[in-house]
């Protein structure tokens, strides 16, 4: 835990008592602050009470005397309307920040920050793995892994560096953000209900480069219009930072590219992209961005290659979880929108697709160019009927309802077809909340079901 000693003697309000909220409360208390905390969710308040806290409603009177409000990233800050506690704090003139802002106010560490609509978790974990494999002292957290205030304390860059995945919500709560190395992978429509417009969403993502100066590095994907505009703005600023573009569409004369199975640096081939844990062109972007960031951190190409080669991949992100009758079963439960699923479908040729859940705006219409890769779709959840209508006669499909039935349906079709390199792919293109607690819960259930059927197969063979 990182005790927030700069808050000693102050009173802080904490709203949102999930993972990062409780960690923030503990760090404030450890630093000598008084804490007033609340959550609108009864179950979260019960968890806090069981941990020894005494939740109290944060009405305006309760905020009197507070130095600030530490807000969990899941709480609406601006759109569709500010949460009532946020509105109370705004009327009281309180500073409203997140746990990452409090970390940066406590320490002056080396920070490497990664954001993007898609791929940020894989890129963050990959960069941390590369640096750790090279013997660097690294702490990984933020939107992935541990809450940042639960990480080891690095008082200076000499002690170690924080590799932090930043969601748009977290960036919005970190006004003093500055990263020694900052990465923006891509920007596509997402979370518009929380940001109001694509322009506002893109502007928040661009703040990953906020505060950078000479000696810092900006790594930015340049394959979408929003990021190209941000790249041009970074170059025009002439702040002294290094700006490294990344592309998977073309070989850049200056920058890092991943094209046709090869990584290029400044137009020169560096190494082949032959990493089983990182399949697909979209992972080429993740590899290229992590490579550029690791180079900015001072590593050579050979060391970076060794780190990538030993990377085991991330759970729920194109995770190979088993094989049944020679059919690979892939857990891509993290794919909660069509853009993420597009990357997964493009990575394989003969796909028996499990999709559905709580649909996001736009559904799966954008995936039509990839329908020829889908041999059958086994549909689940609230979106099943709408997805079936979009698939129409282009893709054989079944309304399976539940994940277990969908897995059996997909396996039966794959066994019947006997196609080379067939994969059963859970890549839902939907949120999970209609049937599961989270995408992790959905992915864990898929792993359990695959393991059960794989064990049964082995038992039958025995």
CATH class of the largest domain: Alpha Beta
Radius of gyration: 23 Å
Portion of residues in beta strands equals 15-25%
Number of helices: 15
- What's the number of domains? 3
Q: What is the rounded distance between the termini? A: 50 Å
Q: Which secondary structure elements does this structure contain, and how are they paired or packed?
A:
Elements: E1 11-15, H1 19-30, E2 34-38, H2 42-50, E3 68-71, H3 84-91, E4 95-97, H4 99-106, E5 110-115, H5 120-133, E6 138-142, E7 161-165, H6 168-172, E8 181-184, H7 192-195, H8 198-206, E9 217-221, H9 225-237, E10 242-247, E11 256-259, E12 262-265, E13 268-272, H10 281-296, H11 301-309, E14 319-324, E15 327-331, H12 338-346, E16 350-356, E17 358-359, E18 374-380, H13 384-391, E19 397-401, H14 403-417, E20 422-426, E21 430-431, H15 439-461
Parallel strand pairs: 1-2, 1-3, 3-4, 5-7, 5-8, 6-7, 8-9, 9-10, 10-11, 15-20, 16-18, 16-20, 18-19
Antiparallel strand pairs: 11-12, 12-13, 14-15, 17-21
Helix pairs in contact: 5-10, 5-11, 10-11
State the main characteristics.
22% strand, six-stranded mixed β-sheet, alpha/beta, 3 domains, UDP-N-acetylmuramoyl-L-alanine:D-glutamate ligase, single chain, Protein-Tyrosine Phosphatase, Chain A, 462 residues, 21 strands, Rossmann fold
